[in-house]
Specification:
The complex is a heterodimer. Chain A is α/β, with parallel strands linked by helices. Helices cover about 40% and strands about 20% of the residues of chain A. Chain A has a 5-stranded parallel sheet with strand order 2-1-3-4-5, with helices on both faces. In chain A, helix 1 packs across helix 5. Chain A is globular, with a radius of gyration of 14 Å. Helices cover about 40% and strands about 25% of the residues of chain B. Chain B has a 5-stranded antiparallel sheet, with helices on both faces. A 5-stranded antiparallel sheet of chain B has the order 7-6-10-9-8, with helices on both faces. In chain B, helix 12 runs antiparallel to helix 13, helix 14 packs across helix 16 and helix 16 packs antiparallel against helix 17. Chain B is built from 17 helices and 17 strands. Classes of the chains: A alpha/beta, B alpha+beta. Chains A and B meet through helix 1 of A and helix 12 of B.
Chain lengths: ~130, ~525
């Protein structure tokens, strides 16, 4: 058994949460994934010092309350999260948002793929490189 | 008779008698023609002035009748004889008129004929004094003509109302342009105060008085605005009022030049409203592009994902069942989005006729549609009496329905919805989203005790498919308020929203209102 990989997935779409976790587990059995339904909930969990600091954060862009871009800005201001790799994870492929989030410090921008094997390929590259 | 002998002042001369001196005096006057006529009008004496003015030498003219100086039309009227007759009767006669010189050129003469009497008071002849006033006459004629022309020019100008006001603002002069633009005839309007051309709101604001004061202070005042014609209709006038001064710089009145630019103004307004419409359509197009690329893509992507997963797990009956349900709900959602998008785009093309709508009965109808939900949620809707308004019944019904549906939906306790209205003048509307075209608006206020939203989202909530809540918490496509906004805009109105999280929401609808 290898090291546990801790992930936080922030997405208001429960179907997308389910699919992400399902695929992630097939990529690496050591992945532990917790979820938040929007940016506000994510920040609440990230600011809770009793919780484990995630290795990876996946952020949807269009979410109610605090959206992905706002959430990213706030996470980047939290010192103890400075080693987290943050991936944007969205249906949106708008160039301006891709550029902005990368400038704000996102490691990469993942456009939600239509087919499960595509997501599997992407997650494999991230977790098993 | 007094002695004719010269006594004082003229001693050292060979002229010995006063008579001779008199004679010389008259003879040598150059500026007046002084002629002696006998009682028949025959010229008996001639001086230098006469020669200067009429060009005849003494020897050419003595013995001729004085009518030689008269023009044919005066001769035809027997003018010379009439003048003689009058002088004979009254002692003198005078006249001004054109006379002719020897060379037939004309001069303007001012003539006085005086009767001369003998000791028995019988008329023995006449003196005729003529002055050449041609230059003065020409100058006067010229001035008069130029004044007449100037007056005529102003009075016949059609495109500008040119009005003379006295120092109090009463109308003293009126031209054809003024009649054409303002509809009054000169005799109807002269003496009236120029405030009659102003709208009641301009009068309330004392605009005419302010313009006169400005003209007094600055020399002139300019203004553009709606003015009132005689028949009550309005025109868009550009106005220049200029103060007129006498030589001591005291105000003696004002000139007021008005141009009717209604057509230009209307064209300009139309252009602005086209531009606004274009901007709106543009931003809608952007929203549509966004919706097509994001919101519609989302269920489509899920359908692909689910069908792929089903294919990979076709042996797992439980899995297949669960994912078929998800697949079908994604397809349903896609259908729902397409349908509401269609509804929204149809709204832009809806140009159906406006009717007078009783908002109370419209609200009753909407309440009936929600009867079951109202009962189920234990909701209370209180409404003040609302006025009637001109609008599109179906659209306003949809707007009321969407707002009430939202208030019923976004609540965690028994919903309390209140609807009230007030008429508000445009100056009292804070931060309108565009320049308001009407003077008064009907402000309908929908407020509830629901979950509300944070004030920073007050614009976003009106955007297409924007949702403030997770899909799992509250159902809906996120199009309801976009439709409301669009309907308000179709009615040349707009909507605003205010709220605080957890403290209910208030939606303000503003629609143009004609105060009767």
């Amino acid at each position: 058994m290898g090291n546990i990989i801790n992930c936080l997935l922030v997405d208001d779409d429960l179907d997308d949460q389910e699919i992400f976790i399902m695929i992630a587990k097939t990529v690496n059995e050591n992945i532990r994934c917790i979820t938040a339904n929007d940016g506000a909930e994510a920040l609440l969990k990230l600011n809770d010092h009793s919780q484990v600091i995630p290795d990876y954060i996946f952020l949807d862009v269009n979410m109610p309350k605090v959206n992905g871009v706002e959430c990213l800005k706030k996470i980047k201001n939290i010192e103890r999260l400075k080693d987290c790799k943050i991936y944007m994870y969205s249906t949106t492929s708008e160039e301006s948002i891709v550029t902005e989030t990368k400038k704000l410090g996102a490691t990469d921008f993942i456009i939600k793929p239509a087919l499960p094997f595509e997501l599997k390929t992407i997650l494999s590259t991230i977790f098993n490189n | 008779m007094l002695s004719d002998k010269i006594t004082e002042g003229f001693e050292n001369t060979n002229i010995r008698t006063i008579t001779e001196l008199h004679h010389r005096m008259i003879e040598e006057i150059e500026d007046y023609a002084i002629i002696l006529l006998d009682k028949n009008g025959i010229i008996r004496n001639w001086n230098k002035g006469a020669q200067q003015i009429k060009q005849y030498k003494e020897k050419e003219i003595l013995g001729k009748h004085f009518s030689i100086f008269y023009l044919p039309e005066d001769l035809a009227n027997n003018l010379p004889q009439l003048l003689i007759n009058e002088a004979f009767k009254n002692g003198r006669s005078s006249q001004e008129g054109w006379r002719k010189r020897k060379d037939n050129s004309k001069f303007w003469g001012s003539i006085t004929i005086t009767a001369l009497h003998d000791h028995d008071n019988n008329v023995i002849g006449f003196s005729k004094v003529t002055r050449d006033l041609t230059e003065k006459k020409i100058a006067e004629d010229h001035l008069r003509l130029s004044e007449e022309r100037y007056h005529q020019m102003i009075s016949e100008v059609q495109d500008y109302a040119i009005i003379l006001l006295n120092e109090n603002g009463n109308i003293e002069n009126w031209n054809a342009g003024a009649e054409k633009i303002k509809g009054y005839k000169s005799e109807e309007v002269i003496g009236k105060h120029f405030t009659i051309f102003y709208t009641s709101s301009d009068l309330e604001n004392k605009l005419p008085e302010k313009l006169l004061q400005l003209a007094v202070k600055e020399g002139r005042a300019m203004h553009e605005g709606w003015r009132v014609r005689k028949d009550g209709s309005k025109f868009w006038g550009t106005i220049v009022i200029t103060a007129l001064h006498d030589k001591d710089q005291a105000i003696i009145g004002f000139s007021k030049v008005t141009r009717d630019l209604t057509e230009q103004k209307l064209a300009e307004d139309k252009l602005h409203s086209y531009m606004r419409e274009l901007e709106l359509q543009n931003s809608e197009l952007e929203q549509f592009a966004y919706v097509a690329s994001h919101d519609l893509q989302e269920p489509l992507r899920k359908i692909q994902t689910f069908s792929e997963l089903i294919q990979q797990n076709y042996h797992d009956e439980e899995f297949v069942k669960r994912y078929f349900e998800k697949l079908s709900s994604s397809a349903k959602r896609m259908a729902q989005l397409v349908k509401s998008l269609l509804n929204y785009s149809r709204l832009s093309k809806d140009k159906s006729e406006l009717t007078i709508i009783n908002l109370n009965s419209l609200l009753d109808e909407v309440k009936q549609d929600f009867e079951l939900l109202i009962e189920e949620k234990n909701a209370v809707i209180t409404a003040e009496s609302l006025p009637s308004i001109s609008g599109n019944y179906t659209q306003l019904g949809q707007l009321f329905s969407n707002l009430i549906s939202n208030s019923l939906k976004f609540s965690q306790r028994d919903p309390e919805i209140s609807i009230r209205s007030k008429i508000i003048s445009k100056e009292n509307i804070p931060n309108p989203p565009f320049p308001l075209s009407h003077t008064h608006y009907l402000n309908i206020i929908f407020s509830d005790n629901g979950i509300g939203f944070e004030q920073q989202y007050d614009k976003i909530i009106f955007s297409l498919f924007q949702r403030l809540h997770g899909k799992q918490d509250y159902a809906g496509t996120g199009i309801g308020l976009s439709l409301c906004k669009k309907i308000a805009e179709n009615h040349m109105g707009f909507m605003t929203a205010t709220s605080e999280l957890g403290k209910g929401a208030e939606f303000n609808l503003y629609l143009p209102f004609v105060v009767s």
